[in-house]
């Protein structure tokens, strides 16, 4: 099982690399990695398991964050209507998105970043993501709200992009031409 010692931090080269596509059909080794990412986000939010192993509660995790530069992510997050997005996605790809942007009013953090970086991070308000399940089935997600923000944050990791790369340097709290989301 993955713990905080498996999660690489700022300065690790994997966080700045462009990750490679996972070969289809999916090899057993890649499937195991994808399922380990999902297990981490689930465990980290479990009131018994999380504290016991000192896991920082996460809603998403990308393979480069455990030093594996392959295109795999996992999310465990609730949408506005209470629907749970709990899945690992291989080769996730944004196939369409809104012109409208959004941002988390509280800003973003990252499991690989041990400091606060204040500011708004512009994200697409709505998007469609296609990819594969760990079993090799094609999957498609139509996303808005928090799940939309998490998928974009995780897919950015596959391209070596950190959330603070997207914060306005001159004025971090310049509201992007966007609809704010969240608290
Ligand atoms: C997180 N969690 O998991 F608005 F109920 C963050 C951390 C870095 C603070 C642990 C988080 O934002 N939780 C959250 C936010 C809410 C409401 C709520 C819970 N990540 C995942 C990560 O680092 N993946 O690489 C960072 C998030 C920032 C925006 C999306 C992902
Ligand atoms: Zn992150």
UniProtKB/TrEMBL annotation:
UniProt binding sites for Fe cation: 110, 153, 157
InterPro entries documented for this protein: Peptide_deformylase, Peptide_deformylase_sf
The protein's required cofactors: Fe(2+)
Root EC class: hydrolase
Catalytic activity: N-terminal N-formyl-L-methionyl-[peptide] + H2O = N-terminal L-methionyl-[peptide] + formate
Superkingdom of source: Bacteria
Residues at the catalytic site: 154
Cofactor annotation remark: Binds 1 Fe(2+) ion.
Enzyme Commission code: 3.5.1.88
One matching Pfam family: Pep_deformylase
Record PANTHER family: PEPTIDE DEFORMYLASE, PEPTIDE DEFORMYLASE 2
Function according to Swiss-Prot or TrEMBL: Removes the formyl group from the N-terminal Met of newly synthesized proteins. Requires at least a dipeptide for an efficient rate of reaction. N-terminal L-methionine is a prerequisite for activity but the enzyme has broad specificity at other positions.
Family: Belongs to the polypeptide deformylase family.
Protein name, as recorded: Peptide deformylase
């Amino acid at each position: 099982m993955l713990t905080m010692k498996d999660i690489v931090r700022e300065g690790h080269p994997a966080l700045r690399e462009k990750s490679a596509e996972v070969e289809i059909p999916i090899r057993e080794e890649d499937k195991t990695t994808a399922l380990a990412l999902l297990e981490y986000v689930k465990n980290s939010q479990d009131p018994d398991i999380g504290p016991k192993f000192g896991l920082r509660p996460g809603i998403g995790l990308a393979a480069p964050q455990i030093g594996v530069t392959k295109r795999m992510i996992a999310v465990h997050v609730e949408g506005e209507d209470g629907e749970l997005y709990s899945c690992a996605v291989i080769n996730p790809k944004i196939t369409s998105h809104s012109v409208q942007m959004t941002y988390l009013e509280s800003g973003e953090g990252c499991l690989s970043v041990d400091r606060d970086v204040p500011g708004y991070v512009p994200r697409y308000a709505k998007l469609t993501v296609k990819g594969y399940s760990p079993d090799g089935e094609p999957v498609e997600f139509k996303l808005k709200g928090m799940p939309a923000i998490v998928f974009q944050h995780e897919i950015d990791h596959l391209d070596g992009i950190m959330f603070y790369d997207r914060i306005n340097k001159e004025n971090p709290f310049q509201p992007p031409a966007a609809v704010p989301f969240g608290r």
